C-alpha cells in the first residue's frame, strides 16, 4: 500500500508541542516519586503476543515522556527493547533534530546531545556511512531544511504541534534571469546524473567528490554563490567545504553544463523548500504500519531496529528500539517490527536507521546526565548522522519532589543482611524530573513498629545530609523515608536472614603485566539464597606482596599487579566470613605434546566410523588427522583421538590451545582431561565453521583441581539433522600457564534442604526421584540395568506417593530402549507407585520428542497431589526454550493458576537440566544463561507474590547437590545407574532422592521466616546405593573426651563415599544424645554420649556404655562405646 502524501493524523486540538527551542515554563503535573516502576509496561501490552519470560520496567524521564525497557522470549529468540512514549499534548515537551553541527561529521548520539539540555534522544536518518556520512533522506528541524532530497520518502513530521507520518521531500530551483533550473536537493550524499545539487555551510569541510558521482568522473562543475551573486565557477568539484555564508552548486552532466554557463558576478536565486511546510521532519526508508495494519514492503533479515510510530489520534509518539546480534537480542525483521509497533499502539509507523546505528539515550528521573539506554549491536555506540532529541521546558532547578533509593545500582541493593550496611540517598526532583540538591532527614520504620523506628528491622548508623547508612538488624521489611523541605519520599527495603556465605564476582583474576588492574565485587547471601551486594565499608581486604587491593567506590575493589610475574590470594572478610580469590600476573606458553608419538595414538568413536592417521601441520610440524563418517546415526556421534597414555599438563593452565585444520562442518571439538580429583572433564572449543588452519582456545574453568591430564581429543556432533563425512587435523597442543597459585579452601555451601540426620518419612507426602540410569535396550542384563532395577525396588519399598523419573533413564532414545524401560518399570514398579517420566537429553538421542511421547505420554504435565502442584517440563533439547515456548507458557499459566487456587499450597517443578551446574565447567546447565536466570526469577516471583512455597528438581549433572535462590529450594538428583561425574565428597555417588512435603506448611505469606519456613514445607533425603556401610567410632572414652565419628558407604567395590552432605543418614543409639549444637536444652541425665552429626564430634558426658547407630538407606551399623570416669 503506498503511503499517501497527505497528513495521516488529524490536528490535535490545543496541542502545545513546539519545535524551535524550549517553550515557556508551565505548571507541571504531579511528579511520580517512583524512579523505577518494576513490572510496569506503561500500558503497552508487551505480554500480549504470546511471548514468555517477560522482564519489564518503566522509568519517568520528563513530564509527558516515559521510558519502558523490556526483555522477552519469543518463538525465534530473545527480544530486548526500549520504548519512549511521548505525550504530544504535554506543553513542556519539544523535539529537535540534532547533529554534530555539520552534516558530514558524524557523532554518537551522546555526543550530539551533550550540553544541549536534551532529556532523551534516538538515532535518526539512514546515512551515507563510510563516505560523506550525510543523511540520505530529507531532514528538517526548526523549519530549516538540513538535508533535502527531491524523491519523497516516508517521514515523521511535526507542524504547529500536529504530528504526522507522511511522504516528505525537499527540492528547489536555481533561477538565472528568466530561466529556472531544478535543484535535486540540499546537502545530498549524491547528485543524480544530469542534476544539480545545492550545498551550504551545514555541509562542513568535506569534499564534494562523493556527491559528484563515481571516482574519476570528469563531467562535473561547481559554482559558488555568495549573497545571490556567483563568485566562482569551476570544472570539477572545487575546493573542499563551503565558504561561510555561501552556497555551492554541484552539477553533473547537463547540470554541469548549466553551471559552466554561469558567469562570475551574475545574479542568481537559489531556493529550497520542503514538499510540506513542516517544522520538523526526519525521513525513513519504508513505512512499517499504515492505518493500523502492517504495510507492504520488502522484508529484511533480523537486525536492530529504530522506529517512530504514532497512535491513531496522534496524541502519542512511540519511539521504539530493539537491540540486535546479542545473546538476549537477535533483532527483528521489518515485518516483526511492524507487528510489535501495532502491539504498542502505533496506527502509523516509519522505519528509520537501525542495525549498528540503533541508539537510545535518556536522562532518567533523578539524574543529571543522559546515559546510554540500549545495547548497540556494534558493541559500542556508533557515530551517526543525526538524532531526534526530546527537550523539556519544565523548571529544571526548583525542588518539587523527592525520592529515596540505594546508593548502589545493583538490582539487589534493596536487600540488607543483618549486621551489614546499606547506604541510601535522597534524590531531589525538579518539575522536569531532573535531579536537584535536596538536603533532608532519613528515618526508618517497619510494619507494626513505633513511628520513631526504634524497633525497625534496620537502624540508621550514620546520618548524612543527603541520605543515611542503614544497618540490618532483624529479618523483615523496612520503609525508608526521606523528608526535605516538607516533601517526603519513601522506598521499601528488606532485611534478609542472617549471613550464610559470601561470594565474589570473579573466581580468579589473571593479569598480563605489572600495572594491569581488575575490578571485583562481593555479594552476601542468606540461608534462603537471597542476595545483597556488599559495600566496601563492610569488608576487610588484603593481599600479599606483588599486588594491591583497594576500594573503588562503594561496592567494588581494584586489584593491581605491582610485579611482572607472580601470584597471590586476595582475601576478603565480611562479618567473619572469608572469601579468597587467586590472582596471577604473567602468562607463559608451554607445550603439552608435539604429537611426535602420533603413530601411537588410536582412533575411538561413538556411533560413527573413521580413521586416525599422522599428517603434517601448517608449518610442517607433526599433526594428526581424524576422518569420520557421521552419516550412520542421528544420535550424538563422536570421533576421538586417544593418547597412548595420559599426558600430564604441567602447572596451572588457564587454557589449552591447539591448531585445527577446519572442514567447515560445524563439528564440536572438545578436550577430555582428568582433573586433580580424578574427575573427567571436557574443555570446550568453538564449533568448526571455518576451513583451513586456525588456533583454537579451550578455556580451563575456574576452580578445576590441578594437575590436569589430557586423555583424548574429541570431535562431537550433537545435531540429529547433521549428516556428513568429516576431515579434521590438529597440531601444536600447548598450555597457557599462569604462575602457580594456592587454590583457596572455600567453605562449602551445604543447603539444609537436604537432610543430613534423619529422614523425611514424617512428612505427609513423599515423592521419589530417580534419573540418569542411561541403559540401552540392546543390553538388558547390563550392570546399569541392574542398578536401575535395584533403585526402583528401593523406591517401591519406601512406598512414596509418586515417582518422578527425571530424565535419562535410557541412553540412546531408540525404540528398543523405550521397550526395555517400559518392561523394567512394569516389572519393578507395576501399579505399586504412580509415576511420571520426564524426558532428558538421552530420551531424544537421534530422534524427536514425539517418539518418547508415543511411548510414555506428554513431555510436559501438570498434576495435583493433595495440595501440591506438580509441573513436569521438557529440556531434552538442552533448554526449556528448545522444547517450545508453549511449555513455558504452560509453566507461567500453571503458576498463575496455583497462586489463585486456595487448595494449592506449594508447587514442585521438575525438568532434567539445571539452571545452574554446581560442578566446575558448568557443562550440564541450561546453556542460555538468560533463559536460566529468567526461569529462576519466574519461580522466585511466584513465592514472593503468592506467599506459597515452590521448589525445582533437576538432574543431568552426575552428582547430588542442592542450593536455594530467593527462597526457592533447588535439588539436583544424581545418577541412579551410570557412574557419577564428580568426587564422592561432592555428591559423586549413585542413588536416588526422596522428597518430603508438608502441604500444611506450604503457605508462607508475605514475610516468611528465613530458612525454617522453606524447610517446614519440603526437604530432601538423598539415599545412596549402599553395597556396604562402615562406622568408625572410638570404642573407649573418658568423661569430657571428644572424639570423631565417621561413616563410609562403599559402592561398586571401588567408590568410598563419606556419610556427609549431600548424603542423608539417620544417627541414633542407646545412651546417645543427638544434637547439632544449636539447641539450648540441658543434656538428659541418662545419656552417656553427645553426638553432633554436623561436625562429626562425639563427646563423652557420663560414665557408662552407649551404642551408636548409623542408618543409611535402610542399612545400619552400630558400635558400642564404653565411657569411663575422667
TrEMBL record:
Keywords annotated in UniProt: Signal
Stored SUPFAM superfamilies: Metallo-dependent phosphatases
Every Phosphodiester glycosidase domain range: 221-391
Domain of life: Bacteria
Gene3D superfamilies xrefs: 3.60.21.10
Claim: Kinase is one of the keywords in the record: no
Domain Calcineurin-like phosphoesterase: 767-943
Residues of the signal peptide: 1-28
A Pfam family recorded for this sequence: Metallophos
GO molecular-function terms, A-Z: hydrolase activity
Name used for this protein in its record: Calcineurin-like phosphoesterase
Organism: Occultella aeris
Amino acid at each position: 500500500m503506498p503511503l499517501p502524501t497527505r497528513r495521516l493524523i488529524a490536528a490535535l486540538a490545543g496541542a502545545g508541542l513546539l519545535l524551535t527551542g524550549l517553550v515557556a515554563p508551565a505548571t507541571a503535573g504531579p511528579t511520580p516519586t517512583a524512579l523505577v516502576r518494576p513490572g510496569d509496561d506503561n500500558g503497552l501490552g508487551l505480554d500480549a503476543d504470546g511471548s514468555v519470560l517477560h522482564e519489564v520496567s518503566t522509568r519517568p524521564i520528563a513530564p509527558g515522556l516515559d521510558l519502558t525497557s523490556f526483555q522477552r522470549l519469543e518463538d525465534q529468540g530473545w527480544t530486548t527493547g526500549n520504548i519512549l512514549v511521548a505525550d504530544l499534548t504535554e506543553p513542556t515537551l519539544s523535539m529537535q533534530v540534532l547533529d554534530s553541527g555539520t552534516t558530514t561529521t558524524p557523532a554518537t548520539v551522546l555526543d550530539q546531545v551533550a550540553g544541549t539540555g536534551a532529556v532523551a534522544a534516538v538515532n535518526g536518518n539512514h546515512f551515507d556511512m563510510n563516505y560523506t556520512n550525510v543523511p540520505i533522506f530529507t531532514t528538517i528541524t526548526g523549519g530549516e531544511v538540513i538535508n533535502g532530497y527531491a524523491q519523497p520518502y516516508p517521514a515523521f513530521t511535526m507542524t504547529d504541534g500536529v504530528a504526522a507520518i507522511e511522504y516528505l521531500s525537499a527540492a528547489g530551483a536555481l533561477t538565472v534571469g528568466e530561466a529556472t533550473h531544478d535543484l535535486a536537493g540540499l546537502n545530498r550524499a549524491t547528485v543524480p546524473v544530469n542534476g544539480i545539487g545545492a550545498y551550504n555551510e551545514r555541509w562542513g569541510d568535506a569534499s564534494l567528490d562523493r556527491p559528484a558521482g563515481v571516482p574519476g568522473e570528469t563531467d562535473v562543475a561547481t559554482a559558488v554563490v555568495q549573497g545571490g551573486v556567483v563568485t566562482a565557477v569551476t570544472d570539477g568539484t572545487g575546493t573542499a567545504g563551503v565558504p561561510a555564508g555561501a552556497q555551492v552548486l554541484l552539477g553533473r552532466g547537463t547540470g554541469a553544463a548549466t553551471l559552466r554557463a554561469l558567469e562570475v558576478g551574475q545574479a542568481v536565486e537559489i531556493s529550497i523548500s520542503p514538499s510540506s511546510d513542516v517544522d520538523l521532519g526526519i525521513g525513513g526508508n519504508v513505512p512499517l504500519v499504515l492505518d493500523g495494519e502492517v504495510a507492504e514492503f520488502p522484508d529484511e533479515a533480523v537486525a536492530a531496529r529504530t522506529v517512530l510510530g504514532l497512535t491513531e489520534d496522534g496524541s502519542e509518539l512511540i519511539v521504539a528500539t530493539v537491540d540486535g546480534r546479542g545473546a538476549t537480542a537477535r533483532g527483528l525483521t521489518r515485518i516483526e517490527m511492524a507487528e510489535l509497533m501495532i502491539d504498542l499502539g502505533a496506527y502509523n509507523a516509519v522505519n528509520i536507521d537501525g542495525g549498528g546505528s540503533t541508539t537510545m539515550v535518556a536522562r532518567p528521573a533523578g539524574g543529571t546526565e543522559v546515559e546510554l539506554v540500549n545495547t548497540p549491536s556494534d558493541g559500542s555506540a556508533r557515530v551517526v548522522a543525526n538524532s531526534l532529541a526530546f527537550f523539556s521546558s519544565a523548571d529544571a532547578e526548583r525542588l518539587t519532589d523527592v525520592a529515596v533509593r540505594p546508593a548502589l545500582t545493583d538490582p539487589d541493593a534493596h536487600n540488607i543482611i543483618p549486621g551489614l550496611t546499606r547506604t541510601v540517598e535522597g534524590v531531589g526532583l525538579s518539575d522536569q524530573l531532573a535531579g536537584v540538591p535536596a538536603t533532608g532527614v532519613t528515618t526508618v520504620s517497619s510494619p507494626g513498629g513505633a513511628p520513631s523506628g526504634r524497633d525497625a528491622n534496620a537502624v540508621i548508623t550514620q546520618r548524612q545530609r543527603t541520605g543515611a547508612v542503614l544497618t540490618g538488624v532483624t529479618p523483615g521489611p523496612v520503609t525508608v523515608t526521606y523528608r526535605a523541605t516538607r516533601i517526603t519520599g519513601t522506598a521499601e527495603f528488606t532485611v534478609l536472614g542472617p549471613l550464610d556465605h559470601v561470594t565474589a564476582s570473579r573466581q580468579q583474576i589473571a593479569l598480563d603485566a605489572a600495572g594491569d588492574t581488575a575490578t571485583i565485587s562481593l555479594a552476601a547471601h542468606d540461608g534462603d539464597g537471597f542476595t545483597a551486594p556488599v559495600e566496601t565499608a563492610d569488608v576487610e581486604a588484603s593481599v600479599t606482596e606483588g599486588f594491591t587491593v583497594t576500594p573503588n567506590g562503594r561496592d567494588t575493589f581494584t586489584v593491581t599487579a605491582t610485579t611482572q610475574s607472580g601470584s597471590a590470594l586476595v582475601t576478603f572478610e565480611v562479618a567473619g566470613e572469608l572469601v579468597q580469590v587467586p590472582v596471577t600476573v604473567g602468562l607463559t606458553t608451554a607445550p603439552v605434546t608435539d604429537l611426535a608419538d602420533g603413530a601411537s595414538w588410536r582412533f575411538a568413536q561413538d556411533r560413527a566410523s573413521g580413521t586416525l592417521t599422522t599428517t603434517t601441520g601448517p608449518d610442517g610440524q607433526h599433526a594428526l588427522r581424524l576422518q569420520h563418517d557421521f552419516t550412520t546415526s542421528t544420535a550424538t556421534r563422536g570421533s576421538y583421538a586417544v593418547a597412548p597414555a595420559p599426558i600430564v599438563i604441567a602447572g596451572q593452565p588457564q587454557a589449552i590451545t591447539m591448531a585445527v585444520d577446519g572442514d567447515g562442518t560445524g563439528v564440536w571439538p572438545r578436550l577430555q582431561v582428568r582433573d586433580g580429583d580424578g574427575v573427567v572433564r571436557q574443555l570446550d572449543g568453538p564449533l568448526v565453521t571455518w576451513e583451513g588452519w586456525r588456533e583454537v582456545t579451550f578455556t580451563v574453568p575456574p576452580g578445576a583441581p590441578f594437575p590436569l591430564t589430557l586423555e583424548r581429543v574429541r570431535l562431537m556432533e550433537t545435531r540429529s539433522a547433521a549428516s556428513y563425512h568429516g576431515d579434521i587435523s590438529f597440531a601444536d597442543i600447548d598450555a597457557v600457564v599462569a604462575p602457580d597459585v594456592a587454590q583457596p579452601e572455600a567453605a562449602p555451601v551445604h543447603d539444609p534442604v537436604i537432610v543430613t540426620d534423619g529422614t523425611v518419612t514424617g512428612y505427609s507426602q513423599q515423592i521419589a526421584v530417580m534419573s540418569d540410569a542411561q541403559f540401552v535396550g540392546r543390553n538388558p542384563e547390563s550392570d546399569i540395568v541392574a542398578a536401575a532395577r535395584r533403585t526402583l525396588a528401593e523406591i517401591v519399598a519406601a512406598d512414596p506417593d509418586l515417582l518422578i523419573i527425571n530424565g535419562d533413564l535410557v541412553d540412546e532414545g531408540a525404540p528398543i530402549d523405550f521397550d526395555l524401560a517400559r518392561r523394567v518399570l512394569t516389572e519393578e514398579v507395576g501399579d505399586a507407585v504412580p509415576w511420571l517420566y520426564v524426558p532428558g537429553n538421552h530420551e531424544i538421542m537421534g530422534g524427536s520428542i514425539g517418539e518418547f511421547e508415543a511411548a510414555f505420554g506428554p513431555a510436559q504435565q501438570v498434576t495435583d497431589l493433595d495440595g501440591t502442584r506438580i509441573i513436569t517440563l521438557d529440556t531434552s533439547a538442552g533448554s526449556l526454550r528448545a522444547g517450545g515456548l508453549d511449555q513455558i507458557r504452560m509453566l507461567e499459566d500453571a503458576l498463575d493458576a496455583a497462586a489463585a487456587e486456595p487448595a494449592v499450597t506449594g508447587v514442585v517443578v521438575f525438568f532434567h537440566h539445571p539452571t545452574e551446574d554446581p560442578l566446575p565447567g558448568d557443562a550440564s546447565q541450561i546453556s542460555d544463561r538468560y533463559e536460566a536466570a529468567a526461569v529462576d526469577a519466574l519461580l522466585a516471583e511466584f513465592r514472593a507474590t503468592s506467599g506459597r512455597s515452590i521448589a525445582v528438581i533437576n538432574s543431568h549433572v552426575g552428582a547430588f547437590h542442592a542450593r536455594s535462590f530467593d527462597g526457592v529450594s533447588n535439588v539436583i538428583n544424581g545418577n541412579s545407574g551410570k557412574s557419577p561425574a564428580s568426587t564422592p565428597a561432592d555428591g559423586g555417588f549413585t542413588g536416588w532422592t526422596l522428597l518430603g512435603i508438608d502441604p500444611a506448611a506450604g503457605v508462607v505469606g508475605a514475610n516468611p521466616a528465613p530458612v525454617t519456613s522453606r524447610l517446614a514445607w519440603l526437604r530432601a533425603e538423598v539415599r545412596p546405593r549402599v553395597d556396604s556401610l562402615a562406622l568408625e567410632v572410638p570404642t573407649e572414652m573418658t568423661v569430657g573426651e571428644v572424639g570423631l565419628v565417621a561413616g563410609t558407604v562403599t559402592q561398586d567395590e571401588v567408590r568410598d563415599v563419606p556419610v556427609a552432605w549431600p548424603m542423608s543418614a539417620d544417627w541414633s543409639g542407646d545412651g546417645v544424645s543427638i544434637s547439632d549444637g544449636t539447641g539450648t536444652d540441658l543434656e538428659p541425665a541418662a545419656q552417656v554420649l553427645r553426638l553432633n552429626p554436623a561436625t562429626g564430634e562425639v563427646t563423652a558426658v557420663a560414665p557408662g556404655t552407649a551404642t551408636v547407630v548409623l542408618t543409611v538407606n535402610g542399612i545400619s551399623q552400630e558400635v558400642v562405646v564404653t565411657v569411663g570416669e575422667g
